[in-house]
Structures are given as structure tokens and as C-alpha cells.
Amino acid sequence: MQLQPGNRVVVTGASRGIGAAIADAFERRGCTVGRVSRSGDPAGDVADPDSIARAIEGFGQVDVLVANAGIAHYLPFTEMPPELIEQLTRVNWLGTVYTVKAALPGMLERRRGHVVIVSSGAGIRSFPGAAVYGATKAAQRGFGEALRHELKGTGVGLTMVYPGQIRSSLHDHEKERMPDWYKLERGVPPEPLAQAVIEAVEKDKREVFHPASVRLLRIMHGLKPAFADALLRRIMHRSAAP
Prior knowledge:
Elements: E1 8-12, H1 17-28, E2 32-36, H2 49-59, E3 64-67, H3 82-110, E4 113-118, H4 131-150, E5 156-163, H5 180-183, H6 191-203, E6 207-210, H7 212-223, H8 225-236
Parallel strand pairs: 1-2, 1-3, 3-4, 4-5, 5-6
């Protein structure tokens, strides 16, 4: 869909990092942006279906929805407490479903709109310590791929976004548990990814990969899983598989 000044955009998890950069990019295009978070405007908790539904209903018409809200916890699976497993699942996976469920009916009724789901490179092929986090991101991927098929011919588009190492505060609280690659504090700024999302909405692109190493990971994952593991080792400087 071609963006126009005044288009109404909802971005969840827009208080920092990728979400904030995406919200800023839409605002620069003249869009009216609702930055949804538990303390945002409008306020809403994606893990609570009633809360996120109220937030989106209160915002009004949604032309573009960016389901970006997410959290990260990293531990070996055998050490991951059930409460963290549930939290990751409710925010990253169910939060995406609840958010799309709330905004999609209006788009379908108007036969116009676009849904963006921000997953992760970990949703393509995950790494040690991210068994649960990666599973929630893979669930987003499966959901988005199927939903794009269901939306064909409705006038509503869908784009999956797979960020790699993006500079963000998302993982800071887990830094000591992160693999060595993260402690090097590398990563690319979120603004180019945000601009790629704008382009994807306007051109109805199926997927966005950023940086380019994530696209290569996707290709290798499909062709040669062992090559994908080798790529992860190169990117992350530690074994990605036994």
C-alpha cells in the first residue's frame, strides 16, 4: 500500500530500539502513530488480549500494524524456570497473535491495510541459550507465513521482519548470560531496518532481512543446515550446534 500523510499506524513495543525507530520512520512520512506499550500512548499490554484490544480500539482506524513488542531471556533450556517460559510465550508469541487479532478485522472490512510482524533471525535458526526465545520467534514466523496466504485477495498485505544483531536495549538485562558474540557489543543501528520496513509496506514485500547475514542464514538453513550452523559460528564466535 502507498503510504499517505495521515495514515494511521500502530507500533507495539515502540518505546525503544527497533520499535521506536520504526515509529519514528512512519512519523517522518506524515503518519499518525500510536506507540503501544504498557506505559505508552495508547497504553496496552500485548500479553493481555483484552488490554491490547482496548488499546487498538481506542486508537481508532489502523492502516498499518507493526507487531514488534517482545522480550528476551537466555538460559540453557534445563535451567529455564517455568515462569520465564510462560512470559516469553505470552509476550512474544501470544502477544503477536492477540495484537493482530485485534487490528485485522477493521483492515479486512475496509479491504486495505498492512500487517508487519517483527520476528528475529533466531526464528530462522536459533543458538545456545535461546531454545525458548527462538521457539517463540519461530512461532511468529509460522503464523505470519500462513496468515499471508489467508490474506491473499483481501487487500491486506503482510510482511515478516527478521532482524539480526541490531543495537537495542532489549538484551541488556541478560547480557551476562548472552553468548560471547553479544558481549562484543556489535550490531547495526535500527534506522536502516526501519526504512526497510517502510519500503516493504509500500511494495508489499513478503520478508525483510537485516543485516544481510540474516538473509544468508535463511538461504543456508533451507539448503544446507550444516552450513547454517557454520554461519552462526562465524557470526557469533561460538558453537551454534553440538
